[in-house]
Amino acid sequence: MPGTHDDWTRVKNPFHRTADAAGAPEGADITPDTTETLAESPQSPATTTAHRRRRWPLVAGATTVVLLATGAVAYGQARKTVELDVDGQITTVTTFAGSVEGLLAEQDVAVGDRDLVVPDIDSALRGGGDVVVRYGREVPVQVDGSQSSVWLTSLDADEALTTLASRGSDVRLVASRSGERASLPIRLDADGPVNVVVDGETKVAPDGSIGIDAILDQQGVQLGELDRVHVEKTEQVEAARAA
User: How far is CA 16 from CA 25, 30, 116, 119, in A?
Assistant: First the structure.
């Protein structure tokens, strides 16, 4: 309008240098809002990723330590000590087996359907317990004059006769003959002496675990063709043990 003067002053844009420093293409328009955004974000995406990568090994390492510690605890809890009795041979075994079957496999103890395992072979193995194995044996027996054979898991002849006592009043184990030799598939007595009765004469064999043939040799007894050998419980045997 007449009488009014508008003064225009050219002002240099202060954001051009900021744009150049930020790597903007020459001639690009950068508004003040955009520049402020760049100025307030000193970390580029690449920098943020680098920080994340530096932190990640620390997290992974911490996780590994926890897993190893947990594994060590479980490993320690699995270790146990038990008494293993295989036909009277007792050993103390330290094992990490979780079951009775695993322990026997670890100790190379093979068992079959006629063998006795206590606790049951499928049972969980517990520290401080006992595992007992008794092998089954086919033993010739004579009950009240009738002869047959039975499978027994007894440790010795004394235990076998005690087991068979309910079958009859006169129970004997019959030794098999091979020429002048006599044998029985189980020991006579695992713990002590036995009486040897020959033609009414009684002698005491100090070690009943060595077998019938060895005892007869020890006592100087020679078997004739018609001689028979059997094992039975008698009052004299009981008296000898008591002594």
Answer: 11, 8, 96, 89
